Amino acid sequence: MAKILVIDDEEQLRDLLKQMLTRDGHEVQTAYDGVEGIRCFNNFHPDIVITDIIMPNKDGIEVITELLCRDSKIAIIAISGGRRAITAEFNLESAELLGVKGILSKPFTREQLRETIQLALV
Questions:
Q1: Do residues 56 and 30 lie in contact, with contact meaning Cβ atoms separated by under 8 Å?
Q2: pLDDT below 50 — which residues of the chain?
Q3: Domain of 78?
């Protein structure tokens, strides 16, 4: 299974993703914003990073850009959604242009997450 770093400022979603991914056999670490996410990336060396786009301190687009500069082969999955659907869609499209391996609009299902992870690992 994979080492996965989840970066999201929503504590409930972060915890839920960690539980789901751990049950699926992955080793998971979490971070609450992009600044902590970059720190965790440097120490954890994940196979996949799942990052929210809209976060305080350092947003997901900044995280994606920085991580791809450090390791152009890192598998990144961008997630976004909620009340700002138009903004979320635009941000996910921007992330896709940067070279992420997958995008998911919130809310997403466990099966959608699994499929996206499998595709990102290829």
A1: no
A2: 85-86
A3: 3-121
